[in-house]
Amino acid sequence: MLNPTSNIFLVGLMGSGKTTIGRALAKKLNKRFVDADHEIEARTGATIPLIFEIEGEASFRQREADVIRDLTAEEGLVLATGGGAIINEQSRAFLKSRGTVVYLRASVASILQRTSHDKSRPLLQTADPKARIEELARERGPYYEEVAHIIIETGRPNVQSVVQNILARLEPSMPVCPPVLVADALADLAADAAADAAADPVSDPAPDSTPAQPT
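The structure corresponding to this sequence follows.
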């Protein structure tokens, strides 16, 4: 597979599929998957909503920046970042310089659909979630594009289709990887897709045993 020491960092708004796609991508590349929000919860012993409630967003963002600093210094990761991780300038620098950044770009409508029943996202606990998502997209979109080496549009395709698209785009961004390995990886994905045509859609990820990403 691709260079085992190379990192892949997934960025994008909440509900863009970073965790679901990240897990599948890590499995295909034989890399370790880490969710930044889950790492924060593991370090603090508290859920993200509780951290927001007790400490406020500013404190949460500092914890998030510390986690991004530490995790990006490791090797062989597929890292799903929180939606607001790119707000911090130093975090953007770490992400862009320490791995390949993949921006999963989703429409406001698809994000609204994916998050409409999720009560664990503090930033969407508002009378008008759609307006809030539109606001976040305007504020954060330029930051995502600034750090991204690769931009992938996510909509209705299944997880394997998105993963295959990412893998195909990784070849030119990781010149240390022999091309034959990328070809082998794509062949493996094609075989998997043929054997599993009913893969779960990005918009309907499998339930997670830990709290969903709220940021």
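The chain has a mean pLDDT of 79.
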